[in-house]
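Methods — Computational structure assignment.
A single polypeptide chain was analysed. Its primary sequence is given first, followed by the predicted tertiary structure written as structure tokens.
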Amino acid sequence: MAAPSDRSAATINRALDGIAWLCMLIAGIAVVVLIAVFGWLVFGRYILNDTPTWVEQLSLLLINYITFLGAAVGVRRHTHLSIDFIREKLPKIPRMIMRCLSELTVIVFGGFMAWQGWTLVATNHDREIPMIGLSESWRAAPLLISGILIMLFSAADLVSGAMARNRKPDTL
């Protein structure tokens, strides 16, 4: 039977995987909207001879969400750029230390992203994105959200790695 800490860790992992799935869903929808918007741009320019001017600003906004949400999911799924062949060839103790340092570095980076994202959201809420009328804070929000998610996902990896190292095999 699984220990209570194992069940709670599994529940947390499922919740984090659900958050990552939701981020990918939002990013996927944003890609579909981006394709539709560019389709409208081409149609408007070449068929109607009337180029929609709002397409560029909306596209930039959508690309922010796609990129930053995708980056957070990459941290969760360990698909981000990583050069780990040297680390994995090291003995166990230096390898564990380097893994912890790597996760801590990503947590600090995510914290910096969240902090700067919050600064941009807070200072740009009164400004409008030209041609689409939304607050400039919408353009900075993905930076804040992604930073928080990157910290959360990396902290979960750090904790689960520490729990795995401290877990003793069951004995009869």
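Note: The chain has a mean pLDDT of 90.
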